[in-house]
Every structure is written in C-alpha cells, then in structure tokens.
User: What shape does this take?
Amino acid sequence: MKKTLGILALILATAVPVTIASLPVPAAFALDAEENTTIAVYEKANKAVVSIRTQGGVGAGAIVDNRGIIVTNNHVVQGNRVVQVNTSTGRSYSGRVLDVDRRNDLALVQIQPQEKLPAIRLAKMSAKVGQRVYAIGNPFGLDHTLTVGTLSRIAPNGDLQTDAALNPGNSGGPLLNSKGELLGINKAILSPSGGSSGIGFATSIAPVQRLLAGIPDRAGGNNSIAANSPVLRQPQKRPTLGITIEAQSLTILDVQPGSVAERSGLHPGDRLLRVNNYPLNSPELLQQALEERQPLVLTVMRNQQIGLIRVSL
Assistant: This one.
C-alpha cells in the first residue's frame, strides 16, 4: 500500500500543468467564417443605426455623416418637420427633416450632437444579385435587430429585393454588404399579412447619393459623405424643362424657346401622362423626376394619339 501511494505521489509531482486557455476549442463550439462575418458587420454598423419616432410610429435610420446626417424613409418622417431620434447609446435628439425624395421614399434628417458619431460608409461596389446582405432596424419596436439574407433581385428602377426578414419598424434602416457598407435603405415588404414574407425592398445607393449631394458642406472640409460618395456635395440649380403646364390635366400651355422641352420636341397642347413609365399625377412628380438629372422618357398624348418623347437634361 505504501509503495502504491509513493508511485501516485511521483506521478502527481511530475505532471505538466495545462491551463484551460491552452486547450484547443472543439470544432463544435467554434464560429464559422460566415458567422464571424455576420458578427463583424453588426458590430461595425449597429452603432450608426438610430430609431426615429413620430406620432405615426417608429422607424429606423442610418447615420452617414459623423456630424449628424441621417438617411431614412420619407414615409417614416412624412408630415413632420421635427422627429425624435434615439442613438445606440440611448441619447435622444431632436431631428430636423432637411430634405425628402418622395419618389424613392428617402428623407434626410439632421441632429446636432456634441461629439462625432459613428457613421456607415456608402458602398463603392455595385450590388450583385446573390450576394449576402444584412438588415438592421427596429421591427415592432425591437431596437437594433439584425436579419440576414440574400440580394434576390435588382428591379429595373434600381430597387433592391431581398429575402432578409423585414417587418414594420425596419423602414429606414440600412441594408448592408459583407463589409458593413450601405447598399440601400429598407422601405417596404410584399406581404398579404403585413409580416415578413421573404420579399422585402430597399432603395439603392444611387438615389441616396443624389439626395446627399444637395447638402452644402457646413464645415467647408472633408467628411464621411464626401470621402465615400462619388458625387459632388454642392447645391445645384433645379433642372427644368422650360414649360408651363396646367396643374390638373398636366397639359403643356407654353414651351420656352431654346429650352430642353423645345429641343426634345414637346409642343403646347401636349398632355403629359407618364414619366419613365410611372403614372404622372402632379407637377411635383415631374419635378422630382427631373431632379434625378437622368434622361427621361415621357408618355405624351397629342391629337388623341399617345407617343413617347425622350428628354436629355
């Protein structure tokens, strides 16, 4: 018995100590590459996602300039000049609605922070069908919820379709690529029930850039938008066709000599029906289309016949 105890004591005395930290992590508990990417995207972008509250409900927004410029949906802020903005730190700000793009359901909101805020970079690479996408928002008031999916389709007008789960409260939140960069702003779902059905939509980055381009650089220097957006951030003169129209019927009353309208072949008496195949119901919709500064196709009725006229600004 004494001999056995002596052998046991020798074994214990000569054993090499092994710390738990040095042991390999079992494969069953390790995160795979996809999970690590998802975590990295969330940790990078989440601090720049805000909740926006109005009397009409709760939406989300993405800080794109560290001095307090936020992109969201027009329908989130609709009818309000001032909204409540809550950041990821719990701070609450009064946000001023700077500008809206009703056609693309976009709005810009500005808050006045005392310090620089985290901001989401705008994607430089074009979106591709099949790529992984990440949505952060406040579905049903559950702040900073992450969902993951695939970019399912890019519509002819540039809208992004995804199967990432979107629900009420995701509106205005960012749709991100695997680098945590902004691909678009989530805005709608296709669902008979009103809940997520795997078909959600986001406005692509191009209209976001055009809306941001209208903001003068308040500090007179570089900022996160100027550094990451290919457009110039200068106030621009509003584009015009050079026509006078009757507001109700959208019939052209006068065409200015040498104007875009005259060069394009528009005549007094023409009735404007559609722009880029979208129904044209008001002069404001026409002006919104012009402010995108892209070639237009107008559907026109002339002498009881309907035709198309291409307009280059």
